[in-house]
Design a protein that fits this description.
The chain is α+β, with helices and mostly antiparallel strands and about 325 residues long. It folds into three domains: about 1-120, Jelly Rolls (Sandwich), CATH 2.60.120.10; about 125-200, no CATH class; about 210-310, Homeodomain-like (Arc Repressor Mutant, subunit A), CATH 1.10.10. Helix content is about 45%, strand content about 20%. It contains twelve helices and 13 strands. The strands form three sheets. Strands 1-3-4-12-6-10 form a six-stranded antiparallel β-sheet, sandwiched between helices. A five-stranded antiparallel β-sheet has the order 2-5-11-7-8. A hairpin with a 2-residue loop joins strand 7 and strand 8. Helix 2 packs across helix 4 (about 175-190). The radius of gyration is 25 Å and the shape is elongated.
Length: about 325
Amino acid sequence: MRIDAHDPDHAAELLRQQTGYQVRMRPLLLGSPFRFSVEAARLGEISVSHTAFSAPTRTAASEIPRYHLNFPLKGAFSTHHRLPGGCTESSPDSLWLHAPQVPAAATSRRETELRTFSIPPDLVHARLEALLERTAGRLAINKPVDLRSPEGKTLRRLAAVLAAEACEPAPSYSQALATSLSESFITALLYAVPHQYTDRLHSPVPRLSPRSLKRAIDAIEDHPIHPFTLEELATIAGVGSRALQMAFKHHRGISPMQYLQQVRLERAHSELMSAPAGRTVQQIAERWHMTNSGRFAALIRQRYGKNPADILGQGN
């Protein structure tokens, strides 16, 4: 999406046409040249945009259906939320997460550039419930993100990575990359934004019993070809996802999904060794859920010191 307008009403109309957002713009210095531009890209379902105001401008919006986070890149920018205690204002070191359907306003005090992240609510809530390992209601946000805190600094760094990847041509693994980066960004956001679930997110994860860990390990080793998810393995172990992740890291040094890949790689190597005539490397790789042949070859070389083609049928 691209917008370049020299009239505030025209700019607001273009935004409405391209996003559906109802926005009002008012220049604060009469007679000053006005220019508003937006260039947006997507990474998965998250939209990343670069927005520029040429002069001080007041912008108001209502009932925007997504979460929005604005990082000032140049100039001075403040946001105002209508919360139960009245309007509140952000600063360069503290950003507001604009919640869906909450009226908000923003002021650019001089020539200003922003990087804005627009996030669907269902992604945020799904990630929140996965982290909490329970159902959760709508976020109640009443404080800004402190970008000077450890969580705020992490969020800022991930925002830069997300923006850089969104602006690049899509690689062959774009969907997997988008999902991974989006999940990491939303996780960092949920830890950085103060809300009613903050204390629970930061609470210690209960330790996992050896018996519960063994149930997950046995499931992986007995059925490595099954398309396990982290949530399914956690259910088998009888614990939450976070507890299972922590237990694998502590006892095995890797995550549950990395352990699953390790077992699959071992089984794929055995199948390569005993492959009958006519069986191909690609067939074996796909059977073990490794559809990227280059990545499969690299993993086999790293683990066994040979290319898959050189191992094929060696055990016969």
